[in-house]
Design goal:
Length: about 700
């Protein structure tokens, strides 16, 4: 039987996971001699290549010395922690990559804690030892301390440590003695990572990932924990609600190289892909048809942030996108839920609006970016953190923030974070750079990256990880500058932009199409300002040198999607289409915005007491009416009239009481004088009739 090693590569973002997988692939000679290939082979998504980050985990298989090694490449960013949590279930051990200069970072701690909790054996690689000012021995010690703090077992603490450079393609047990290959790493994997345990019995496989094929539909991926699976076998699918569905396996595939190969039988411990299973979710168990036994479901950390997704209702609606309706957006978000475990979808009071919950701005912005590239048009509201009530106290998510920046600029960083309710934990000098750690509310991180990069001329490196919920830290001041809003629909004229440049910074290029209510710039003051940039220069027949100087326009600020989401205020949307990212006010016209502002002011905290008194008075009046009606109903001498569909024929007698009965509650008493002949009017009496009793 083939010996199998299932390993996951975990590390902080940008510590070299995907590059290492590349070198393992090259070392195993998967490619032909004459075959061309680029860097970052597994980051095959356009979005991953552009951003330089891994978003979804990938499987690859290599063979070395007769042993099959299944490698799982995982994302390094904290926002994609849900991916890491589920794929670790497929692994027998982990390779922990740590930068030889930076050492353990926030995400290192997060992924390592998950691996240790699952009882996985780690191999530590101190990567990038070719860097200047690297400190491999110190980093080795700090990894040991970290694992000790995370309560690792003695076996886990007795980890092998390998040094090397993924980029240069070498690994060694001693960083002072470089080699010319990564064979020491492959030897360490075979020696230290335990082979997949073979458990006899009925089949049991948890679905931890999924793939899609246009030919066969959805494909379930997972590691076979027990027994064997064969092609055409009847199985039971154990769902989250405890129910089971009987199905038949159509096809089985195992990972071989960068692709998958069809097999008739899968042995225990192998990672395989199963087709023919319908209506499954990640976390479901493929079990024996006769005696189904479900495995414990994957526990995923709760989302900490929400965004409002709505249809695009701007004047430029439907110009660029293919999918624009609420039905399209709903279907796409529901489809995303199937594979994105860390995301949740909530309903709102409107059929056109959806509340989407995720791990952070990056987590949800990747989804939005993917949707716009698929041809969707939508609008996104301001990111909001999820506030919970714990033991009667209002609590909010808190994150550990690490900022790496030049020592001379550390004061600015501390100032910015402190203003956002951050608390400094430690400050450590590494060469010419300073590493500062804070505890900060998740609200404070929104928009902080741009501020820091601007203040440090792009030198600051920021990383954060979710810790837990703590009592609410108080209000955080938002953007202190208002917006420049377009008054008209049309083309942005260079002449107008030039004349308005002293008012603030612009976000639109000259000759760009704009509409009324679009946010086209940032005001230099704190309030919003409506400007007209569609106005052309009046023509005259007088010409003189110097009067018609060329417009000198400062290049506009062009936001990325994350920057736009972090920039907007509560009363603004980000309009996302396949070709454009625009900022706009929720209410496009000035009149609507003023009306909305008045309503907000009316319901503000200043009027809270007055409103409370009004509602109390209204309640008292209704209760008094109901009591009066009950008294009248008990008096036999008084004749009561109820409103009905048939109409009312009055009499000459006075002393009648008319009662407007809504449902079972009589809420209105009409003055008896309205029912006298002296005050007779067909309009008054229309729709009233006697209830048929004296």
């Amino acid at each position: 039987m083939l010996s199998i090693r299932n390993i996951a590569i975990i590390a902080h973002v940008d510590h070299g996971k995907t590059t290492l997988v590349d070198k393992i692939i090259h070392a195993s000679k998967i490619f032909r001699e004459n075959q061309e290939f680029g860097d970052l082979i597994l980051d095959n998504n356009d979005l991953e290549r552009e951003r330089g980050i891994t978003i979804t985990s990938k499987n690859v298989s290599v063979r070395y010395n007769g042993v099959k090694i299944n490698i799982i490449d995982t994302p390094g960013h904290a926002d994609f922690g849900g991916e890491v949590e589920r794929v670790l279930r497929m692994a027998d051990g982990v390779i922990l990559l740590v930068d030889a200069f930076e050492g353990p970072m926030p995400q290192t701690r997060f992924v390592l804690s998950k691996a240790i909790a699952l009882g996985l054996k780690p191999i530590v690689i101190v990567n990038k030892v070719d860097k200047e000012n690297c400190r491999p021995d110190e980093v080795h010690e700090s990894v040991f301390d970290l694992m000790f703090n995370l309560e690792a077992t003695e076996d886990q603490l007795d980890f092998p440590c390998i040094y090397g450079s993924s980029k240069q393609g070498w690994m060694s047990t001693d960083w002072k003695q470089p080699t010319d290959n990564i064979i020491p790493l492959l030897d360490a994997i075979i020696e230290h990572i335990p082979a997949s345990k073979v458990q006899e019995g009925t089949p049991q496989m948890q679905i931890t990932s999924l793939d899609y094929s246009s030919f066969v539909g959805r494909i379930a991926i997972g590691r076979l924990e027990r027994g064997t699976l064969t092609e055409g076998m009847q199985i039971a699918l154990c769902k989250a609600d405890g129910s089971t569905k009987k199905m038949r396996i159509k096809e089985l595939q195992v990972f071989e190289g960068l692709g998958k190969v069809k097999v008739e039988k899968v042995e225990c411990g192998e990672i395989c892909a199963v087709t023919g299973i319908e209506d499954f979710e990640i976390g479901d168990t493929v079990a024996d048809a006769e005696n189904p036994e479900a495995l414990a479901r994957i526990a995923i950390d709760e989302p900490t942030m929400s965004m409002l997704f709505t249809i695009n209702d701007s004047p430029f609606f439907g110009k660029e996108g293919k999918f624009v309706t609420s039905r399209h957006i709903r279907e796409r978000l529901t489809k995303e839920l199937e594979k994105n475990l860390a995301m949740k979808l909530g309903e709102t009071d409107s059929a056109d609006k959806f509340m989407v919950f995720g791990r952070g701005v990056l987590h949800l912005s990747v989804l939005i970016e993917t949707m716009r590239r698929e041809g969707y048009e939508l609008q996104i509201g301001q990111p909001q953190v999820i506030i919970k009530e714990i033991d009667g106290k209002k609590c909010e998510p808190i994150e550990e923030l690490t900022i790496d920046l030049p020592e001379s600029l550390s004061g600015r960083a501390v100032e910015f974070v402190t203003l956002r309710k951050g608390e400094m934990l430690s400050m450590e000098t590494k060469g010419e750079r300073m590493i500062i750690k804070f505890n900060i509310p998740s609200r404070g991180i929104i928009g902080l990256r741009n501020q820091l990069l601007t203040a440090t001329a792009g030198e600051a490196i920021m990383a954060h990880r979710f810790i837990g919920y703590e009592p609410f830290k108080g209000e955080i001041s938002g953007r202190n500058k208002g917006s420049l809003i377009s008054m008209e629909k049309g083309k942005a004229i260079p002449y107008s932009i030039d004349k308005l440049q002293d008012r603030g910074k612009f976000f639109v290029e000259p000759n760009a199409e704009i509409y009324e209510g679009q946010v086209i710039g940032e005001n230099s003051r704190g309030d919003d300002m409506c400007v007209n940039v569609t106005k052309e220069k009046k023509q005259s027949n007088v010409r003189s040198s110097g009067n018609d100087e060329k417009a000198r326009i400062i290049p506009p600020i062009i936001f990325s999607l994350e920057e736009a989401l972090e920039y907007i205020q509560k009363d603004e949307y980000v309009e996302v289409t396949p070709k454009s990212i625009r900022l706009r006010k929720i209410y496009l016209t000035e009149t609507d915005r003023k009306r909305f502002k008045e309503i907000l002011n009316f319901f503000s905290s200043k009027n809270k007491t007055a409103l409370k008194n009004i509602f109390e008075l209204q309640r008292s009046i209704i209760l008094a009416k109901l009591k009066l009606i009950n008294i009248l109903n008990q008096l036999q001498s008084v004749r009561a009239f109820l409103k009905t569909k048939r109409g009312f024929r009055t009499t000459g007698q006075e002393g009648y009481v008319a009662i407007d009965k809504l449902g079972s509650d009589a809420v209105k008493i009409v003055d008896r004088m309205e029912f006298s002949y002296a005050n007779f009017s067909p309009n008054i009496l229309k729709g009233w009739d006697t209830p048929g009793r004296n």
